[in-house]
Write a structure and sequence with these properties.
The protein is an alpha/beta fold and 301 residues long. Helix content is 33%, strand content 15%. It has a 9-stranded mixed beta barrel with strand order 1-2-3-4-5-6-7-8-9.
Length: 301
């Protein structure tokens, strides 16, 4: 999840705009009906994430998603005044991959001013700037790209983020709660494996990290040296940073198949909801899920 701070207001961009859409929908509707549950000056402004079938993304699910269902999600965000931010993390794209029909349909569907693309590939960036100029581009960078204006910074730099020579701090996005530690030796291999499987439409290319037993999931990930707490977030804001990202949980399921929606929900609650309302939110979302299951099994409840 991204958040942007301007004039003491926090502007959040929710992760998983399609996958786990119902969780985003739940929090957006709660924000509309009970704004007092949220920390003061919090605004939900964007939703970002990968559309599973797109080969431009990194996702362990190659299941086809009907385009009309994607449009319904986009329409919901638009109706609730949230921008769409499409996440295309695949840095192994070649020119021939730019012709991917499904990815281009998704781009065309959300092509309007106020929407965003977060990406890693220079080839894809040039293509989108030329053919879909209404999008604002956010580039995923490592230590070598910190002088760009709109950037999403690799979470492995969190330990030294205050001392890094970042030129445009108010336009930089910082990952708050990375699941893998900065010392993970399989991080690059993991992402490369999934990216190439995605481009090959390989449904069986599931990556299960052999180190998953040592990975800290939420809320135990608060012990991760790269985790950014609420108190540190405020300090970073005071130093000039305005944008922060709650980790997208999709790729984390490929680390450990036991990573659940509970981990995602708890991260929302930690960063968004005041302590005195957190148990209320947990009860509300459990009740919503229970009724959804009953409606699916028995019809109208």
């Amino acid at each position: 999840m991204f958040l942007r701070i301007l004039k003491k207001k926090f502007y959040f961009v929710l992760p998983n705009l399609y996958n786990n859409f119902y969780i985003n929908k739940f929090f957006i509707e709660i924000k509309n009906s009970n704004p007092d549950y949220f920390y003061d000056d919090y605004i939900l402004s964007q939703a970002y994430g990968t559309i599973p079938y797109s080969i431009w993304g990194i996702n362990n699910t190659r299941k086809y998603v009907p385009i009309k269902i994607v449009k319904q999600a986009f329409d919901f965000y638009y109706q609730n005044k949230l921008s769409v931010n499409l996440l295309f993390e695949n840095n192994f794209i070649e020119k021939e991959h730019l012709a991917d029909t499904y990815s281009n349909m998704v781009l065309d569907m959300a092509h309007r001013k106020g929407n965003y693309i977060t990406l890693a590939s220079d080839i894809l960036e040039n293509y989108i700037r030329k053919n879909f100029p209404k999008y604002e581009i956010i580039k995923i960078v490592n230590k070598n790209g910190l002088n760009r204006k709109n950037i999403l910074i690799d979470g492995r730099l969190n330990n030294n983020i205050e001392s890094e020579p970042i030129k445009y701090k108010k336009h930089a996005y910082i990952l708050l709660n990375p699941i893998c530690g900065s010392d993970c030796k399989l991080y690059d291999y993991h992402r490369e494996f999934i990216a190439k499987e995605q481009m090959n439409y390989n449904e069986n290319g599931l990556f299960i990290c052999p180190l998953y037993a040592y990975i800290s999931f939420y809320p135990s990930c608060t012990d991760n040296i790269d985790f950014i707490s609420l108190s540190r977030l405020k300090k970073l804001r005071d130093k000039g940073f305005r944008n922060f990202v709650i980790n997208n949980a999709i790729i984390n399921r490929s680390i450990n198949k036991n990573y659940t929606n509970i981990d995602l929900i708890e991260s929302y609650i930690y960063y968004l909801i005041k302590p005195e309302y957190q148990d209320i939110i947990r009860k509300k979302i459990t009740y919503e899920h229970y009724n959804a299951v009953r409606r699916k099994m028995y019809g109208k409840v």
